[in-house]
Amino acid sequence: MRRPYIVQILMTPAIVLHGITKTYGALTAVDDFSLEVERGAIFALLGPNGAGKTTLIRVLTTLLRPTAGDAMVEGRSVLTEGREVRRLIGVVPQENNLDRYLTARENLVLHARMHGMRPAEYNRVIDELLELTGLGGRQHDFPDTYSGGMQRRLVVARALVHHPRVLFLDEPTTGLDPQSRRAVWDYIQTLRARMTIFLTTHYMDEADTLCDRIVIMDHGRPLVDGSAAQLKEALAHSHLYEVEVRRDADRYETVLRGLPFVESAERSGNLFRLALTGEEALKPLMDAIGSADIRKICLREPSLEDVFIELTGKKVRE
Amino acid sequence: MFRGAFSIWGRDMRVLRRSLFSELLAVIAYPLTLYLAFGIGLKGYIADVEGVPYALFIAPGLISMTAVNAAFDESAWSMWFHRRVQHTIEEYRVNPITVYDIVIGKIFSGFCQGAIKGVAVAAVIFLMTPFRFPFPHLLAYLFFIILGSMIFSCLGTICGTTIDKPENIGRVQAVVIVPLIFMAGIFFPLSSYPAAILPAIRVLPTTAIFEGARQALLKGGIEGGYAAILIATAAVSFVLAVWIFNKKIEE
Ligand SMILES: Nc1ncnc2c1ncn2[C@@H]1O[C@H](COP(=O)(O)OP(=O)(O)OP(=O)(O)O)[C@@H](O)[C@H]1O
Ligand SMILES: [Mg+2]
């Protein structure tokens, strides 16, 4: 059955990747990556340093030609309809790229002009955005007199001047204080009704509470895909417990690490975070410590960070 | 069409306007020093060159040199700065404009810097000296300034696009640009060259810029051979600059 055109439009996902691959010489930064992101979602791409997140965003924003594969943004190919794609997207790059020879306002105006907006149109939007991002009072200053958080907010504002349908944010909150992070997030939240948001972040709590869907990637490939709850649920079978002892923590550390049914043990003070092989390990665990010395024992809900570490390992990346 | 190029050019002109006075002061100081040192300092030692007073002989070359140097500098450094330091080229590239908009906007900015600074030096030298030129001579001279600035803006754009390390831009200037300019006979007549190498010197685009400009200013008229070399060089360097930028940026 053929669907009416308008329905087809509404049903096309905002972003589609077909087998995107990007190699730099011998290094494969993104490896045969396929994905669909539905309209109106806040989508987070997580992964350790060097996983390929920025590379993927650069392909989607037409800055980088993929070695193989194609991607669609709002149904337009990044390979053959780059200009159309760029009309529809807003981009906040990982590194701020403001023009330090232009004032904050002039930065926004230049952006609007390149989008073909007229002064009557852009002045109103720019006033509004400067107000919302709390930069109105400093709009005639140069960006290098701004704090890092203010610069970041200005970059976000710039990406929104032309009312994009898809917003790409590469680590929008890295380096911000909790207040600025919150301000940026509150602002992003108000946008969700109007656009699809594709972001990367290293803050697990942000992804957990604010994003509808999460993909964790490493070495250029996706590892898992789902909502925060689904990802955590998938890890729930691995038995995570917290055990607090009253005394002799040093001795118990050696004991716990020696037990065959303890897969891993992390210690902070008197508190141990244990991953056990299964529920049947609980009884021997209590025996090993001795009930008099146990202050507390409880099941621990896995956090998104647990999922992340579980999937991508503990080793620090180069 | 070319909305992006126009926006980028507008941005560069706005930034130039902010610092116009100090830029002009800096750019006029160098040719003026040379002019005073050679034109007036050597006055007693060098009589006329091919029937022209030496101070008058070197003036057109100094003006052209300012223009083409300014065009090269602006294009090379601005392209390098926006590409490697500020990464503003990337911001331009996520807007609905083409790479042609970016490179053409940048080439025109360099060209304008060259033309504006050349004219400023010309005004100062003309004010300081008793030499006066008929208006058609000035127009013919302007033709060479414009084409020269255009060519050097394209060359600068190519350097700023392909060279990642700033010190290498300085080296290209010292090893390629400055010799090309001086070989073209700013301070001496081409007739000083041995007859054997003169034909090679005559086809250098810089010779066409400097010798053509001098003849235009002093004698009037645009010499066909020089004009042809310049127009061809401008066309080739423009196409090359656009093509190289396109290649480099797409990676
Ligand atoms: N221009 C380049 N030339 C060569 N290798 C590159 C280039 N850009 C990225 N890479 C490599 O590609 C891989 C992916 O890099 P990318 O920047 O996409 O990672 P990322 O997930 O964004 O990391 P981070 O969290 O640190 O920002 C890395 O191994 C990186 O070294
Ligand atoms: Mg990155």
3D structure, described in words:
The complex is a heterodimer of chains A (318) and B (251). Chain A is of the alpha/beta class and 318 residues long. Chain A has two domains: 14-226, P-loop containing nucleotide triphosphate hydrolases (Rossmann fold, 3-Layer(aba) Sandwich); 234-312, Alpha-Beta Plaits, CATH 3.30.70.100. Chain A has helices at residues 5-11, 53-60, 82-88, 104-114, 119-132, 148-160, 178-191, 204-210, 228-235, 249-258, 282-289, 304-312, and strands at residues 15-24, 27-37, 42-46, 68-73, 76-77, 89-92, 166-170, 196-200, 213-218, 221-226, 239-245, 262-268, 271-276, 294-299. In chain A, the strands form three sheets. Chain A has a six-stranded mixed sheet with strand order 6-7-8-3-9-10, sandwiched between helices. The termini of chain A are far apart. Chain B is mainly alpha-helical and 251 residues long. Chain B has one domain (3-250). Helices cover 79% and strands 0% of the residues of chain B. Chain B contains ten helices and no strands. Chain B has helices spanning 3-18, 20-41, 54-85, 88-93, 99-128, 135-162, 166-183, 198-202, 205-219, 224-250. In chain B, α3 (54-85) packs across α9 and α9 (205-219) packs across α10 (224-250). The longest helix of chain B is centred in the N-terminal third of the chain and has 32 residues, at 54-85. The model of chain B has no long low-confidence stretch (mean pLDDT 90). The A-B interface holds A 61-65, 83-84, 86-87, 89, 91, 93, 95, 97-102, 106, 110-111, 113-116, 158 and B 3-4, 7-8, 10-11, 14-15, 18, 86-88, 90-98, 250-251. The site of magnesium ion has 4 residues of chain A, from α2. Magnesium ion (MG) is lined by residues 53-54, 94, 170 of chain A.
